[in-house]
Amino acid sequence: MTNSYKKEYPFVGYAGFGGGAGALSAKSSAVSTKYVDEVFSTVPYIGDGTNSHKITNGIPLSTTGGFIWGKERGNSGSHYQFDTVRGLDKRLKSNDNSAQETDTFYSSVDSDGYTIEKTTSVNISGNTYVSWTWAIKEGLMDIVTWTGNATGGRQLAHNLGSVPGMVIVKETGGTQDWTVYHRASGPEYKLKLNSMNAQGSTSSWNSVVPTSTYIELGSNSAVNGSGQEYVAYIFAGGESTAATARSVVFDGNDYLSLAASDDFHLTGDFTLEWWCKRTSTGTSPEGIFEIGNYNTSGGVLIYTYQSKLWVYQDGTDNDFGATALPPVNQWCHYAIVRSGSTNTIYLNGVAKGNFTNSNDWGSSTNKTFRVASNYGTNFIGNISNVRLVKGTAVYTSSFRPSTEPLTSITNTVLLCCNNSSTTGKTTGGTITANGDPTASTDSPFDDTAAFKFGADENKNITKCGSYIGNGSATGPEVYLGWEPQFIILKQSSASGNQWRMYDSMRGITTGNDAELYPSSNGEEDPDNEFLELTPTGFKLKTSDSAVNGNTATYIYYCVRRPDAIVGKPATTGTSAFTMDVGNASSTIPTFDSGFPVDFAMMRNPASADPNFIGARLTGTSGNKFNASPPESSSDFGSQWAWDSNAGWCANTNYSTGTQSWMWKRGQGFDTVTWMGNGVAGREIPHSLNAVPKMMIVKTRTDGSIGWAVYHVGLNGGSNPEQYYLQMPGNDNAANSNTRWNDTAPTSTYFTVGNSSRVNLNNSNYLALLFGDVTGISKCGYYTGDGTSNGSHSIDVGFQPRFIIIKQNNGTNWKKYVVIDTLRGEDNIMYLNADTAQSSSDLIDISSTGWSFKSSDELVNSNENSNRYVYYAHA
């Protein structure tokens, strides 16, 4: 048998006999596979014991082919691996090294998932399961089978179309261990998926990094035994092969120097940026750059010390405020930007602090520049793509760092550490190497050939990397550039710790990280609190050696969540927001949505009842819009379940008298959590991919602090970032810079001040962000005219099903009025009050908005000359 390239894949239409087509066929298909939720999915399900159990996950497996990984959650049971290349009747088990089994497991793959035929094992009635599915797709994953020939140097072709970041190989007909290549370990090492062992040296990959077209095999029987059958699951996430995707390695005793030049006398605006990866865990100062001579007037030293980045000049140290260094062994991007007299530091694109200094950097008599300067200990680690732009403040607010090597833009005077030679550069004068720095192909840049997703098909959705633990409950924060929905990680530097699998569908939340272990048949452990998701990656929250042992190395593979950038856009209002009444089910979902719910409000509208709220990111802990308690699980507990693709909650008490309002994250809505630091001007990243028009924020840990509300229509739309509303109160909009720091939100971040409502030190926060989506949602404002005859109409461009209206000036009673079409537009309730709904013929909803037709509640919606803000959703 020869290599099973894509031309040998089974034909489309014969899915039951081996599953769909390979990547070459998928290219020519009219089926869209450019959004993450079209090529990867997590589905928790409950077995029904039938031979026709359909798993609907949105993946067009009958066209693309793919890989299915399943596991029983509530009981011990093997991890099962199926794929359409070997055939749906064959399964492997990652928790042991046994050969594949043949049985009738799945009957077919479909245009939106697959069908289970087995009535046991993967489908026992009443048992809980999870299924992860990957489509075969360039930039995501590929599957290749072959017959070994025991010949070292064999090049095994694949159609991933990009450099792999992780490869998992199993001998299908025998008992060889699962063998794993990972970008962070390199081709000289391997891990075993069915083992807790550390990485070990290997000949499996012939010491050759995989390329975008092949994997090179050694003669090792784990991957290439003579006459043996194998399968490889090949995942994207490899390094860029661009000529400038390079770095320079410094060992603490060497540096680069550039001859004196006017370019290094910085007299006005400038931008100095670079990527670096620290490999030292020491606490001594480490010099990164020196401009001029730091011991003489005007000279500047930029160095790290005590977990901060410092600038020293003329006897004065500046530390940019609360700048924290990223974890050891992780690439990060820094930019120091001067605009006027303000010097700002950006870490991974987020402003972390600033100081005022209008002095020249460098001097007119010493115009030299050093990389890895000799102060304390020279920098230890890698530095890549150093760019100095003289005369321009390139960044004036937070940004997302480039995913590709930097180029020489206008006013660039230096661009170096991006060459196959340590002294090579794109722009600048002669560079001299001092000591023995070395050039490296290690860089922060991923292979851009894997950037195939999103509306413009230019974004990535997988990431492979590593980090070093610090053994602290305040663990390292791993920067990915986006929020993940799926994580596999493993300690690679020592034995004794399991592989671990997490996903946001089952839960990565406060006190409830649902863990499964690929190398073990153990049931799901839902009680650990190891991880926290962030808008740009994930953070470790434990000192447990499983994920954060001091100085231990961990490798990871992540899949991006379907955010507003790479997620499939909503085409109707009901695909992003819906309402339902309870079905009194103890099995999730009590409230049906038809999509994964990321935020929900729930109450009995006909009774005096709190407006309970909860979010997928916060798990079983919830809060109330009409009160200001700390976040708690006492009112909710395990009944507030989120592990469903089609709804949420599991509670027999919630029947048709209880209603839920449910939102999906994506275009028009996002949720963000963070830990406050008390520093005004803090910028919080988000993934709305648009400017938020309304934000509702609350501390999750302090019961004396209520909600803060931003809306684009405050103060009549004039400088709304200077104003705020509160809940549960009925107050007017107030002017204060302590909420939003008088800074308008942007499409990538929003800014908080130092108010306890938004940024109390060491307090956890939740933010709900709402935006405009044409034909689906809108945040707007208007001035009331006092009429009640239908003459005053609000045009939103669609027929709304849900409306919030709030007066924000005046002297009268003015609550947050809520109207929705499930309860009927003639019933109103209040977001910030627990009073029962009341009958009020307040508005008429039309195909484009609504009009006011009643004097009832007029003060709350249309009082003459008063200003109102609203949020409406189709």
Give short descriptive properties of this protein:
single chain; 874 residues; mainly beta; Jelly Rolls; 7 domains; 9-stranded antiparallel beta sheet; 8-stranded mixed beta sheet; 68 strands; 3% helix; disordered N terminus
Mind explaining what this structure looks like?
The protein is an all-beta fold. The chain has 7 domains: 6-135, no CATH class; 141-236, no CATH class; 247-440, Sandwich (Jelly Rolls), CATH 2.60.120; 453-559; 573-663, no CATH class; 669-770, no CATH class; 777-873, no CATH class. Strands 18, 20, 25, 26, 27, 30, 31, 32 and 34 form a 9-stranded antiparallel sheet that branches. The two termini are 57 Å apart.
Short description:
By secondary structure, the protein is an all-beta fold.
Write the layout of secondary structure elements.
Blueprint: H1 23-27, E1 40-46, E2 53-56, H2 61-64, E3 66-72, E4 79-83, E5 90-93, E6 101-102, E7 106-110, E8 113-116, E9 128-135, E10 141-147, E11 154-157, E12 164-171, E13 179-182, E14 189-192, E15 200-201, E16 214-217, H3 221-224, E17 229-236, E18 247-251, E19 255-258, E20 270-278, E21 286-291, E22 300-305, E23 308-313, E24 316-318, E25 332-339, E26 342-347, E27 350-356, E28 369-371, E29 377-378, E30 380-390, E31 412-416, E32 425-427, E33 431-434, E34 438-440, E35 462-468, E36 477-479, E37 484-491, E38 500-503, E39 508-509, E40 512-515, E41 525-528, E42 531-534, E43 537-540, H4 545-548, E44 553-560, E45 577-581, E46 591-592, E47 599-603, E48 612-615, E49 622-624, E50 647-648, E51 659-663, E52 669-675, E53 682-685, E54 694-699, E55 707-711, E56 723-727, E57 734-735, H5 737-740, E58 749-752, H6 756-759, E59 764-770, E60 777-783, E61 793-795, E62 802-807, E63 816-820, E64 827-830, E65 838-839, E66 843-845, E67 849-852, E68 867-873
Parallel strand pairs: 21-29
Antiparallel strand pairs: 1-9, 2-8, 3-4, 3-9, 4-5, 5-6, 7-8, 10-17, 11-16, 12-13, 12-17, 13-14, 14-15, 18-30, 18-34, 19-28, 19-33, 20-25, 20-30, 21-22, 21-28, 22-23, 23-24, 25-26, 26-27, 30-31, 31-32, 35-44, 36-43, 37-38, 37-44, 39-40, 40-41, 42-43, 45-51, 46-50, 47-48, 47-51, 48-49, 52-59, ...
